[in-house]
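On clarity, I found the account of how folds are encoded harder to follow than it need be. Since the whole study asks how a given chain folds, the encoding of that fold should be made plain. For illustration, here is how one protein appears when written out as sequence plus structure tokens:
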Amino acid sequence: MSVSTQVPAAPDDVRLYVLDCGRIGLDDVSSFGLTNAETPVRELFVPCYLIVIRRVPCSGMRDCRSTWWVKV
């Protein structure tokens, strides 16, 4: 049996953006199956993902030409 080590090229019409959407602070990590003594980590990164596919003309919004502002 042969295993290919070649990674296929990413398509030009798809882009993935990873955004920093904040942090989660934890007092207790037991909900992750760890004890507090096993890790000093108490702050987690919260990622948001934006996938842009150029071949799709619209994201489902009624008017794709509109400007949208998001206040965070």
